[in-house]
Amino acid sequence: MCGIVGYVGPKEAKDVVVEGLKKLEYRGYDSSGIAYFQDHSIEVIKTKGKIIELEKKLVGQRTCGKLAIGHTRWATHGRPTDVNAHPHRTPRVALVHNGIIENHAELKQELIKKGYEFVSETDTEVLAVLIHSKLDEGLTPMQAVQKSLAAVEGAFALAIIIKGAEDQLFIAKNLNPLIIGLGKDEMLVASDISAIIRHTNRFIILEDNEMGVVSNSGCTITDFSGKKITKEVKETSWNPTLAEKEGYKHFMKKEIFEQPRALADTLSDIVDNERFRINLRDFPLAKEEIQNISRIVIVACGTSYHAGLVGKFFIENLCGLHTEVDLASEFRYRNPIIDKHTVMLLISQSGETIDTIGALMEARARGAKIVSICNVRESTIDRKSDYTIFTDAGPEIGVASTKAFTAQLMCLAAIALFLRQEINGKDHHMTTKYVEELLKIPGAINQILGNDSAIQEIAREFFNYRDFLYLGRGNNFPIALEGALKLKEISYIHAEGYAAGEMKHGPIALIDEEMPVVVIAPRDRYYQKTLSNLEEVKSREGIIISLGTERDEKLMSLSKAYMSVPPIDELFYPLLTVVPLQLLAYYIADFRGTDIDQPRNLAKSVTVE
Ligand code: F6R
């Protein structure tokens, strides 16, 4: 949440920073701003609203030279206004911040007593004023930053510019991510890689309690007391075009259509194509340890949590291991029962979700082995885990997660099959059969995507309704939750996901002729039962949009609208059934004219609690 960009180099710094901010806009977009030096004074230009508003304000501004910092905000402390937008400044200091300064109130009181004034409602401004106060005491810029960092509590990624050190960017990190991009005669600082891949694929990751001074000739990294730290330079294989829309109206649509590729790539890393086995190289548990696993605890947030709920079906069905699924924000404060035979399985697209990181730390302290499914290499969750299985989805820019979700399901299926191989090595032919089914999935999704105009027509018919219900059973109950989440987050229509069998215990009271009910009913072991639930809806005048397997005449005859997926092993239907629901949500939102890639109040990477 919140995106930070900094640049030092020969190009027009404010252009590079604004272009980087646009790539980070998915992290937060309620206000943005930029700071740089002009005639040895700090110039700050900032505004409420999206980066396009900032660009309007920058038209006609003089060139700024070689150094600038910028920020795109997701408000925590203080409303999204011009004044609360970052950078925050004093006459001598300007800074951008991602995170929360927890002791801002006490620090502010002390500074007010000393005669300093504040203009915003934010926690961040206190740090700018604090650094300024240290400069007033006669400290050098570096000392002023160090002393100030020693006084603050909380989470932060920071980029700071200071009058008198006009060719240097000061940076620091605790809990919120920050990387340094190493270009040719230029250096960049950013919250994540998507802001810098146009300029360089070489980068350094700042760890907690590290700070740095960056200039166009290089960077020096130290701890907060000034002790030098040698850092490894990493390289990313992400290609800059993956972060472009490439002709699609929205990133979300592009990402929905990228799913066959994303899943094929994810599989190619983990399937041994000759032997039809799952190959998780260097998995941290030996065969005997796997055989001694007492429990798998899956922890995640939002859409990744829904993937976890499906993962429980995969693991329990394929390897008979007791599996629990928990929301990261609940798990970490719940005194969870974890021992050294527990494997914790974390799922996160970004690898930076603060609640999921908190859960990881909690489980680690209790001795669990930590295995993660993650889309971003070198993210915090990847680095803190014992083992990471990567979704090869490429950068996901649309705020509503789509390709990362199906890629997570693919990894979960692969983990379940791998554990099955290790626990019960003998039934090789069954593993082969399941692997063959997984290999069919990219093609099956292509088939579903080929039918998107039919789903667009359904969206055209229903986009004006106010409430939707989504029903599913078994492994498609999480898909009902996910379908409802996709619809509400991008179209702002109220939508609920329910286990179809729970209808009669309450939600059936909601059914009337104004309520579209999306029923997920592929031909699986739950099919007949789901049909009965569908009949209950129909007899109360509910409008049925059904989702079945290929041409299901029975389902079609009961429904106002019908969508379908090709047949597959019933365990893996969620990898297919979610796709028409992503398209339905997308087209409904498109007809309503909402801001699909950047829905209100949301941010892609949730780095605050
Ligand atoms: C919804 C969505 C969110 C994320 C959640 C966890 O479309 O994207 O619900 O799934 O914020 O994020 P990650 O997976 O990055 O930990």
> From the alpha-carbon coordinates, what is the Rg to the nearest angstrom?
26 Å
CATH topology of the largest domain: Glutamine Phosphoribosylpyrophosphate, subunit 1, domain 1
Q: Structural class per helix/strand content?
A: alpha/beta
**Low-confidence parts lasting 5 or more residues at pLDDT below 50?**
none
What sort of overall outline do the alpha carbons produce when their principal axes are compared?
A: globular
**CATH class placement of the largest domain:** Alpha Beta
| Strand arrangement across the biggest beta sheet | 3-2-4-1-10-9-11-14
The domain count comes to 3
Percent range of helical residues: 25-40%
What composes the largest sheet? Answer: 8 strands, antiparallel
Mean pLDDT across all amino acids: 92
Q: Strand tally, please?
A: 26
**Proper CATH architecture of the largest domain:** 4-Layer Sandwich
Describe it for me?
The radius of gyration is 26 Å and the shape is globular. The chain folds into 3 domains: about 5-235, Glutamine Phosphoribosylpyrophosphate, subunit 1, domain 1, CATH 3.60.20; about 250-450, Rossmann fold; about 450-590, Glucose-6-phosphate isomerase like protein, domain 1 (Rossmann fold), CATH 3.40.50.10490. The chain starts with a strand and ends in a 17-residue tail after the last helix. Strand 15 (about 270) and strand 16 (about 275-280) form a beta hairpin. Helix content is about 35%, strand content about 25%. The protein is of the alpha/beta class and about 600 residues long. It binds fructose -6-phosphate. Fructose -6-phosphate binds near residues 302, 400 and 401. Fructose -6-phosphate (F6R) binds near residues 303 and 349.
